[in-house]
Every structure is written in C-alpha cells, then in structure tokens.
Amino acid sequence: MGDVTDESDDTRRCPCTSGLTFGECCGPILAGQRRAATAEALMRSRFTAFATGDRDYILDSWHPRTRPRQLVLDDDTAWYRLDVESTSGGTPFDTTGEVVFTAHFRTPGGREAMRQHSRFEKRDGRWVYVDGVTT
C-alpha cells in the first residue's frame, strides 16, 4: 500500500512529507516508542499509517467515542503527500486542537486530493483523532 516498501528502513523519507526520515518522524510513533507531542504530529502519523497500511495504529489513535468498529483500507489507494495548511491549538500544553490539511493520493483512476478540517483531543495525556469535516 502506498509508496512505502520497507517499513524497517528508518532512513527513507517519511510519508507525511515533513522532510524528516521515517525514523526521525512518524516511525517511532507508529511503533509505540514515542507519543505524538502535538495534534499536528498525530495527524502526520495517521497519514503515514494510511500510507503504510497500518490499520491498527489508525484505529488506536482514534477517539473511542468516534472510532469505527471496523476500518477497511483500499489497497488501490496510494497516499503520497500531506500538506498541513493550518493548526489551531494542539500544542503540548493544550487539550484540544484542530488541523486543516490536504491529503494527496492516487487511485487507478488518477491523482486526487482530500481536504479536511480535523479535530483532536488529548486523552489521558495522549493525542487522539476525534473527527473531521471534508471540505
């Protein structure tokens, strides 16, 4: 799934397009070695989880109140770029945050993009995705 071929290679560029390597950015978060410090970091790690097909992380990082019982990822969708457009709150000192982003992906039909305004909440000291509105 996606453009990521070897999840153990921490030196490749992170799928979230932060400019950092996977090992410096989302890799440790997805592996449970580190928590996302901000709502934006959680958004980036969730995008990377979509890009790498890490369904368990996506569900685990979702607020229990809004998390779906089941998540089906489309193997024909390749997530390749994340553009974070704005953030509000979501710092290590906040309990809520919002991130507006555009996620770019490819399907057999061509390139597409999805823009979303997402809400996050800190729950027991850990950022979780609450919900989002696609615009």
UniProtKB/TrEMBL annotation:
HAMAP family (alphabetical): UPF0225 (MF_00612)
InterPro entries linked: NTF2-like_dom_sf, SEC_C_motif, YchJ-like, YchJ-like_M
Name of the protein this chain belongs to: UPF0225 protein VZC37_19485
Endpoints of the signal sequence: none
Family membership noted in the UniProt record: Belongs to the UPF0225 family.
SUPFAM superfamilies: NTF2-like (SSF54427)
Segments forming domain YchJ-like middle NTF2-like: 38-132
Source taxonomy: Bacteria, Bacillati, Actinomycetota, Actinomycetes, Mycobacteriales
